[in-house]
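User: If you would, consider this record:
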Amino acid sequence: MRVTEKQKLFCEEYLIDLNATQAALRAGYSEKTAYSIGNENLKKPEIQEYIQKRLKEKEDALIAKQDEVLKTLTAVMRREKPETVVVTCKARKSHYDDKGKKVTDEAEQPICVEIPTKVSDVNKAAEMLGKYYALFTEKLNVDGDMDYNIQIDYGGEDE
């Protein structure tokens, strides 16, 4: 049996908080039937399968793929991605109180500043890319079948 659009909506809503009754309500089922339909939907094999498929898709989206890692390393190596650093700035403000005495207030405020990528990070990214592409291998890898026929001539006997 196929999952209907309303059931798909139920599944998507269910994945938000794993509450079948609330998912049924948000999917458009009535308050009177939300509890029973929510439970009933979760028992249907096609809905269970759809929910498992969506969970897998969400999990896969969280894990970096090979090309994403390589693109990130390349961007770091080329210094295309600046680094964000939090800097604390101190500000002094002077004013006079009711008695005419000078009062100085200090306030610290954190701000985010972008700085160029560190050379050590660039070198590490270049090293990791070099290892991935086997640019620095010292071993020579030779594959294949090699049949050798070795003849040893000891000399001394003439035929």
